[in-house]
Amino acid sequence: MQPNEIRELFFLQKLLVDLNSAYRQLAGLQTHAYVADLLARGKYLDPKSLNRHEHQVFSRTGQDGVIAEIFRRIGTTSRYFLEIGAGNGLESNTAFLLFQGWRGSWIDGGDKEMVSIRANFREPIASGKLAIAQEMVTAENVEAILTRLSVPTEFDLLSLDVDRNTIGSGKRSRRLGRV
């Protein structure tokens, strides 16, 4: 390469960095304006609205921020959670609490989900901050599972996500299935 070609490459690289910086600044302003616009209307208008506090760290749709705001308002006691239907743990409603020093239990019936939890949450499991069980929870077995996990009788948060648990046992669940 000739010296003038090298200078031209450096010039183009600097121009690209400057353009990238300007784009990030503009995107930040647009994001700030968008959020300000949202907070100034509709469901976000009420300063007591929990929607104003939505943000996502592990949760799927902003529950991390809403849960934090609820506990900011009401306080905590045991800082213990129970999540039934924890999925793979990476999009759970309580993983953020776990990393803020809470303790708790996760229950999920899926094989893949438990493999993910065991792989990604080794330290909290090993330290006793997180107890896990791979089971399908029913009205008949829930008490035994909670006892086995040593879930306290009183705790701060229950997250229940059993939307795919549609196969029941006994006459009552079959009858409800037809409704």
Detailed description of the structure:
It is a single chain. This protein is α/β, with parallel strands linked by helices. The chain has 2 domains: 3-40; 50-160, 3-Layer(aba) Sandwich (Rossmann fold), CATH 3.40.50.150. Helix content is 47%, strand content 11%. It has helices at residues 3-39, 63-74, 95-98, 111-120, 122-127, 142-148, 170-178, and strands at 80-84, 103-108, 130-134, 157-160. Strands 3-2-1-4 form a 4-stranded parallel beta sheet. Helix 3 links the parallel strand 1 and strand 2. The radius of gyration is 24 Å and the shape is extended. Mean pLDDT is 79; it is low at 166-179.
Q: Over the alpha carbons, how many angstroms does the gyration radius reach?
A: 24 Å
Q: What percent of residues are in strands?
A: 5-15%
Total DSSP E strands: 4
Overall mean confidence score, pLDDT: 79
Largest sheet: 4 strands, parallel
Write out the strand line-up for the largest beta sheet, numbering strands in chain order. Answer: 3-2-1-4
The CATH homologous superfamily of the largest domain is called: Vaccinia Virus protein VP39
CATH architecture group name of the largest domain: 3-Layer(aba) Sandwich
